[in-house]
Design brief:
Structural class: alpha+beta
CATH class of the largest domain: Alpha Beta
Number of domains: 2
Strand content: 5-15%
Low-confidence stretches: none
Strand order of the largest sheet: 4-3-5-6
CATH superfamily of the largest domain: Glutaredoxin
Number of strands: 6
Shape: globular
C-alpha cells in the first residue's frame, strides 16, 4: 500500500498489527472541520466556512470509509456544492492513483497522478498512510480532513443554508443512542471485518470474527422490531453500517474469511440492506463488481494468484418487505 515519510513516497505493504497479530488501524491525522461560519469545529483549526464550490471530495468506489461520505453528499443534496474525484478502483505501487485518460478516475482539481501527491500538495513534509476520503479546500489549497466519520458530520448540517436540505441524520434527541451504536458497529463490524481479514494469528482471527457475528446477530434481532437502527428515523448509524453490509457477501465473506453466515442468511438485516440500497440515489454509489475485484485483487498473504470468484449472485432490487415495521 505504501506511505509517505517526510513527504517522500515509499513502498510499504506491511499491515499494522500488535504483538498478538491483531490488526491495528492507524488513526486519521487531518481533522479540521467545515462549519457554517468558519469557526473551528470539535478539532483542528478554524477558517473553513461552508461555501458552494469551495470544497472537493476525493473518494474511492471500493472503499467503505469513502462510501459513507459519497452517500451523505448525495443524501444532503451536495453534489452541486462539493465536487468529486474518484481514484482508480485498484491501488498499485503508488497507492491510490488516478487515470488521466479516464473521464471517471482523474483528479479534476490538481491533475495529479496519485493521491499521495494531493497530500504533499497540502503538506509537503507529510508522514503517514495515504487514505480516502479526503476533503480538499480549493481556496486554501489544503486538506481539511481525511476522517470519514467527521466529514459526514460536516455534510450533515454545515451546508444546509446553501442547499435548503435540512434533513438531520444526527438529531440531538438520538445522539447518545447513535454514538453507542456507532462505537460498537465500528469496533466489531466496520473495522471488525478488517480485524478478521488482516489477523496474523488464529487467536486474533477467532476473536475478531466471533465479535463480528455476535454484533450482526444482535443487529438482526434489533431490526426485527424496528425499521431502522434507532426506530422509525434513518440516522447516521444506518449509513455508517450500510457500506459494510453491501460489501459483505461479495467480499468480506470470502476474501476476509467472515464466513459464519452471509447477510443474505439474516431474516432482517438482508431486507434492511435492500431497503437502504433501494432509496433514491443510493444504488448509484454501489458497484458490487468493483468491490469484488478490489478485495480479491492480488495479495501475497490473502490471494496470491489474484483469482476473482464468479459469485455470489445477489439481487439487491428484490422486495425488502420492511414497510410493515
Amino acid at each position: 500500500m505504501g506511505k509517505l515519510v517526510d513527504g517522500e513516497w515509499i513502498t510499504d505493504d506491511r499491515i499494522e498489527t500488535d504483538t498478538s497479530g491483531r490488526f491495528q488501524r492507524v488513526e486519521s491525522q487531518l481533522r479540521n472541520w467545515v462549519t457554517r461560519d468558519g469557526r473551528a469545529g470539535p478539532s483542528g483549526q478554524g477558517g473553513y466556512k461552508a461555501e458552494s464550490g469551495r470544497y472537493h471530495l476525493y473518494a474511492a468506489i471500493n472503499c467503505p470509509w469513502a462510501h459513507r461520505t459519497m452517500i451523505m453528499r448525495k443524501l444532503k443534496s451536495l453534489e452541486s456544492v462539493i465536487s468529486l474525484s474518484l481514484v482508480a478502483p485498484r491501488r498499485n505501487e503508488q497507492g491510490w492513483v488516478f487515470d488521466r485518460s479516464s473521464e471517471t478516475y482523474r483528479d479534476d482539481v490538481l491533475d495529479t497522478g496519485a493521491l499521495h501527491q494531493v497530500y504533499t500538495a497540502s503538506k509537503p513534509d507529510y508522514s503517514g498512510r495515504v487514505t480516502v476520503p479526503v476533503l480538499w479546500d480549493k481556496q486554501g489549497a489544503e486538506i481539511v480532513s481525511n476522517e470519514s466519520s467527521e466529514i459526514i458530520r460536516m455534510f450533515n448540517d454545515a451546508f444546509d443554508p446553501l442547499t435548503g436540505n435540512n434533513t438531520d441524520y444526527y438529531p440531538a434527541d438520538l445522539r447518545e443512542e447513535i454514538d453507542t451504536l456507532n462505537a460498537r458497529i465500528y469496533a466489531t463490524v466496520n473495522n471488525g471485518v478488517y480485524r478478521a481479514g488482516f489477523a496474523r494469528t488464529q487467536e486474533a482471527y477467532d476473536e475478531a470474527v466471533t465479535a463480528l457475528f455476535e454484533t450482526l446477530d444482535d443487529l438482526d434481532g434489533r431490526l426485527a422490531t424496528r425499521r431502522y437502527l434507532t426506530g422509525d428515523r434513518l440516522t447516521e448509524a444506518d449509513w455508517r453500517l450500510f457500506p459494510t453490509l453491501v460489501r459483505f457477501d461479495v467480499a468480506y465473506h470470502g476474501a476476509f474469511k467472515c464466513n459464519i453466515r452471509r447477510i443474505a442468511d439474516y431474516a432482517h438485516l438482508s431486507g434492511y440492506l435492500r431497503e437502504l440500497f433501494q432509496m433514491p440515489g443510493i444504488a448509484e454509489t454501489v458497484d458490487l463488481e468493483i468491490y469484488k475485484r478490489g478485495y480479491y485483487s492480488i495479495s501475497e498473504l490473502r490471494n496470491p494468484l489474484g483469482i476473482i470468484p464468479k459469485g455470489p449472485s445477489i439481487d439487491l432490487w428484490a422486495p425488502h418487505e420492511r414497510d410493515a415495521l
